[in-house]
Amino acid sequence: MTSTTIFGTGNMANAIGGLLADGGASVTYISEGESGTAPITGDIVVLAVPYPAVDAIIDAYASQLEGKIVVDITNPLDFSTFDSLVVPVGSSAAAEIQAKLPASKVLKAFNTTFAATLASKKVGELGTTVQIAGDDADAKATLAAAVEAGGVSAIDAGALKRAHELEAFGFLQLTLAAAEKISWTGGFGVVR
Amino acid sequence: MTSTTIFGTGNMANAIGGLLADGGASVTYISEGESGTAPITGDIVVLAVPYPAVDAIIDAYASQLEGKIVVDITNPLDFSTFDSLVVPVGSSAAAEIQAKLPASKVLKAFNTTFAATLASKKVGELGTTVQIAGDDADAKATLAAAVEAGGVSAIDAGALKRAHELEAFGFLQLTLAAAEKISWTGGFGVVR
């Protein structure tokens, strides 16, 4: 059985945890208040927290994260302007996290799907697809299998370098939703 | 009636021209062989050529393009590696073109839709949506109206700065299609 530890207890944390639990995974949450003291028990660790909260988790858990699949779901927007990302130009949050956790298998996933589309498993009438980028093929396959077991499609979006494009995609989607040009139950879907 | 001049005679040129003609626009094409001699007659000018071919058009037509709506559809991939774009990191082809044509109203559009999805007006079972970014609201509205008259949805994707995200989106979509993870009749759709 896939075991998962999710940092965070917000909408995205709950949507991802619900999806993985639907697929039969064990899911444990570490809330903000527990972070730093609760142990990581899962083989897949999902950082379902805002990007500015990631560093404190890395600082507290770097050694426990060694060898683990670490899933970065963030859209690292500058929320003061909603007009740019806070990561270095051309880079990505996922690449920054991988650089800080060189012994972990960092994946970018879930940043292109709104919480509602993970929970309903639909983007409008279309089935939801989780895009996964990363440099470790086995880690990607493990996460994809856990997602698909829960009833949502997964697609291999390439190497971790593609996290730049996934974050641009997620950023664009957020700007459209914030401007009410798309709904939070819609957005960008993937058609095979 | 909207009048359109399309540079190029490839799949994208024909798909865009067909769509705009369906909406009642007049459409004139300038082929590679005619480029430099044939005059621009349209108010909307679509650069439906590969990104490396854009500069020659700008050199030949800069003065004729003043005041026009100039639509950049390119996905400026480095096709030797299929792993990065050839535009400066953080910038976009559209921003580069706007800098070279300061008196034109440059829009980014049609780079997130494959030719087949413009021709069929469907991404799988979903209606096709053209994303349009640009700094001139009237120009965006004019192009959006021409697209919608042809039976395809259009969405305002924000300022021309968002062309960076649209090009990342198009790049990602191309890598997935080239890897046969999505089909050329599918891809990323927009659900309102």
Automatic annotation (TrEMBL), chains A, B:
InterPro entries reported for this sequence: NAD(P)-bd_dom_sf, P5C_Rdtase_cat_N, STEAP_metalloreductase
Pfam families linked to this entry: F420_oxidored
Top-level lineage group: Bacteria
Gene3D superfamilies the UniProt entry points to: NAD(P)-binding Rossmann-like Domain (3.40.50.720)
Keyword 4Fe-4S: no
Oxidoreductase in keyword set: yes
Span of domain Pyrroline-5-carboxylate reductase catalytic N-terminal: 41-76
Stretches assigned to coiled coil: none
Key words of the record: Oxidoreductase
Classification via PANTHER family: DUDULIN-RELATED (PTHR14239), REDUCTASE (PTHR14239:SF10)
UniProt name for this protein: NAD(P)-binding domain-containing protein
Organism whose genome encodes this protein: Demequina zhanjiangensis
